[in-house]
Design brief:
The protein is an all-beta fold. About 0% of the residues lie in helices and about 55% in strands. β9 and β10 form a beta hairpin.
Length: about 180
């Protein structure tokens, strides 16, 4: 497994051993070979989330992700609703949405999928690096070194949880490794 060392000032969000620091369904989320894996083996009727215990406000986040399926995402500055569903910003992962900025359960698409930018840098069914910068009302998303979404959003949340999504639908697997964050 390829390992990425954290840059100065960044801390790991994942210990590589277990789900310490995270809240989620242990039937859907596992640690395998130092990788966070969300997997469904039958149709899932709801979106499921593995979320941090801690909230974050202004930060730079980076991770590597691999999707074998059709849809996932990285929630940030999000809250948990009474039914357990997360609501808030989502860096989209999946068919015809990689790199888009979505607001789950709230305003919907804030920055749409841009195939002319994403398709040339996307590693389908392999590891992709995702970076998210959230400072005050400015949001920036970078996929494999290319900016895919940038937004000044005075109406958006200023803090919240980080979450990893398994989308409703047919069986699929999403994996995350090298999750690091730097708070400002």
């Amino acid at each position: 497994m390829q390992s990425v060392n954290a840059k100065p000032g960044f801390t790991s969000l994942f210990n590589g051993k277990d789900l310490t620091g995270w809240v989620g369904d242990p039937d859907l989320w596992k640690v395998e070979d130092s990788i966070l894996v969300g997997r469904t083996t039958k149709n899932l009727s709801y979106n499921d989330f593995l979320r941090t215990e801690k909230e974050y406000a202004n930060f730079a986040f980076t991770c590597e992700t691999r999707l074998q399926g059709y849809n996932s995402g990285i929630q940030f500055r999000s809250l948990v609703q009474e039914d357990g569903h997360m609501a808030g910003y989502q860096a989209d992962i999946g068919d015809h949405c990689w790199g888009a900025l979505y607001e789950e359960m709230l305003r919907g698409h804030l920055v749409h999928y841009q195939p002319e930018i994403v398709e040339s840098v996307l590693n389908e069914n392999d590891w992709n690096q995702y970076q998210i910068l959230a400072v005050d009302d400015h949001i920036l998303q970078i996929l494999n070194g290319v900016v895919t979404a940038e937004l000044d959003d005075p109406a958006g949340a200023r803090s919240g949880l980080i979450g990893l999504q398994i989308h409703s639908g047919p069986p699929q697997e999403v994996a995350f490794r090298n999750l690091f964050i730097k708070e400002f």
